[in-house]
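Technical annex, item 7. During the second reporting period the consortium partners agreed on a shared format for inverse folding records so that results from different sites could be compared directly. Each record opens with the tokenized structure and is followed by the designed sequence. A conforming record, contributed by the partner at site C, is shown below for reference.
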């Protein structure tokens, strides 16, 4: 009898959804924090590529808008990997800054032909038909340097990262959302499912 109960229990565990599919974790447990730091150390210099694969959205081609979602968990992975590369570890103060943040960061990468092209860009979320505006937004511009194999003539010369910060209290961290980039009266819409992120 006991053996059959154990088998049923193991079967139930097998069919339970994995942690990664549950949605963005707003309040990380001590185990979540330890897992993120361990993951960052383990991935090392490959953490950036790993997070890009897991947390990015949009087109991957040259000069196409795309972005990345920066959750608390992914920030801890990233910071711990960068510090591990320098032989350092996250301080309690750095951990606290990430853990006490009440905003989800969404970065969108865009390209243009003048240095401040994205300064007027706006970003908002749409969930269940409701528009959610960010608490703050900023854009950082840099000159885009084409690789040796890329013909730069006629292509955008500048790259911008538009950072938008959304209050966790105003979003549903385990449901679908549309990330809307408004640029020069045109809209670019990215469909994401927050269940895919941790």
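Designed sequence (site C submission):
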């Amino acid at each position: 009898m006991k053996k059959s109960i154990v088998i049923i229990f193991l079967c139930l565990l097998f069919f339970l959804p994995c942690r990664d599919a549950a949605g963005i974790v707003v309040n990380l447990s001590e185990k979540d924090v330890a897992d993120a730091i361990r993951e960052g150390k383990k991935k090392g210099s490959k953490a950036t590529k790993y997070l890009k694969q897991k947390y990015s959205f949009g087109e991957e081609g040259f000069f196409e808008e795309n972005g990345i979602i920066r959750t608390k968990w992914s920030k801890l992975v990233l910071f711990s990997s960068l510090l591990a590369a320098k032989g350092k570890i996250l301080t309690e103060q750095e951990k606290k800054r990430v853990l006490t943040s009440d905003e989800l960061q969404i970065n969108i990468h865009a390209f243009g032909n003048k240095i401040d092209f994205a300064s007027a860009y706006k970003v908002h979320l749409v969930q269940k038909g409701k528009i959610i505006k960010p608490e703050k937004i900023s854009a950082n511009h840099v000159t885009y340097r084409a690789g040796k194999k890329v013909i730069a003539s006629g292509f955008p010369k500048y790259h911008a990262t538009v950072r938008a910060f959304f209050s966790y209290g105003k979003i549903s961290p385990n449901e679908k959302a549309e990330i809307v980039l408004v640029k020069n009266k045109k809209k670019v819409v990215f469909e994401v499912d927050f269940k895919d992120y941790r």
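Residues 70 and 105 are 5 Å apart (CA to CA). Residues 2-15 form the longest helix (14 residues). All partners now use this format for quarterly exchanges.
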